[in-house]
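[Help] Beginner question about ligand-bound structures

Sorry if this is basic. My supervisor gave me a protein sequence and a SMILES string for thiamine diphosphate and asked me to "get the holo structure". I don't really know what that means in practice or what format the answer should be in. Inputs are pasted below exactly as I got them.
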Amino acid sequence: MTYKVSKEILDAFPCYEAMDNAPEDLSLDDQMKMYYLLNLIREHDSKLKELWMANKMCGIAHSYAGHEAIAVGACMALAKDDYITSTHRGHGHVIAKGGDVRKTMAEIYGRVEGYNCGKGGSMHIADVEQGILGAAGIVGSAMALAVGAAYSSVVLNKKSVTVCFHGDGGTSQGVWHESINMAGCWKLPVIFLTENNYWAVGTEFTRVAAQPEVYKRAVAYDIPGILTDGFNPFAVYKAVKSAAERARAGQGPTLIEARLMRIVGHWVADDESYRDPKAMEVWWQLDPIARMKHYLIENNVPPKSLEEIELRAKNDISDAVEYAENQCNDPTPDTLFKDLYANDEII
Ligand SMILES: Cc1ncc(C[n+]2csc(CCOP(=O)(O)OP(=O)(O)O)c2C)c(N)n1
Ligand SMILES: [Mg+2]
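Answer (accepted):
No worries, everyone starts somewhere. Holo just means with the ligand present. The predicted complex, written as structure tokens, is below.
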């Protein structure tokens, strides 16, 4: 049975790609891992609003709910020693690249046991051992970091590829153009992955971009530009896999536009006064979790196994919340100037 999508959505989302076939190099175990990660990220970020309302979180956070296919599809196509750079909406990237949800949650709670010893919060999570070079609250800033990481791979003669996740809002920053230009000139092993969710806070991308079809801008840097369905983990996987092969072969960067819709609010307490949140609900038809579940069931995976995975993801997040809330500690005032730089001697 085909997965049903309304005509209204198909008309509004021409890059829809049906999930009919898994990529040939993804085993069933890989697909089940993908399904688990989609659920883990959804559970993780669905908790955020509740935590913020209960005043348990330090600072604010942006939910990756609905975006999961991009981080999971991309990171499944990478190796452990590949790098990623992230954004203010970064938990999905971190978890998909192998981050530990106990440590992300502890960081969001501002605890010593968190990734940044409680001093970075939601928007600055990094785990260099897993190749997660860091989330960044400054829109567009990770572009230059990604180019630096890719340059280091060339200088150090490593085969690592860097994926630079960023939003459509980031593509209007000067550094976006400068970074792709430099990477194009030097044929660096970097993949610029635009998550075009049509919105930058309350600004519609089509209103502020002279060329809102981001992948078409690749022509200006003489690199390939790929448009893909950002609600489809298989489609994103295939795009990133081919771009990574190209990068590893020394052929330079690729610009991938993963298109989707930001179905949720910009941040945990966004009242979305600039649009009608009810009108957004129709987009949940493209929910990557529902689509992948449908695909797996159609391909003879027992629904019970999938429910077990969903439950495992739920339990893993409950455990992470319990850990952050009851088993972790607040930083003490004497550590105020510690853990701010890789080398504390600097201050
Ligand atoms: C340089 C800069 N300008 C403005 C902001 C405020 N800001 C935070 S998120 C955001 C929108 C980003 O939109 P986009 O890049 O499309 O990512 P999305 O939130 O849609 O994932 C803005 C303007 C910022 N953090 N940095
Ligand atoms: Mg956006």
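A couple of things worth pointing out: The chain has one domain: 26-260+270-322. The CA atoms of residues 8 and 38 lie 26 Å apart. Feel free to follow up in the thread.
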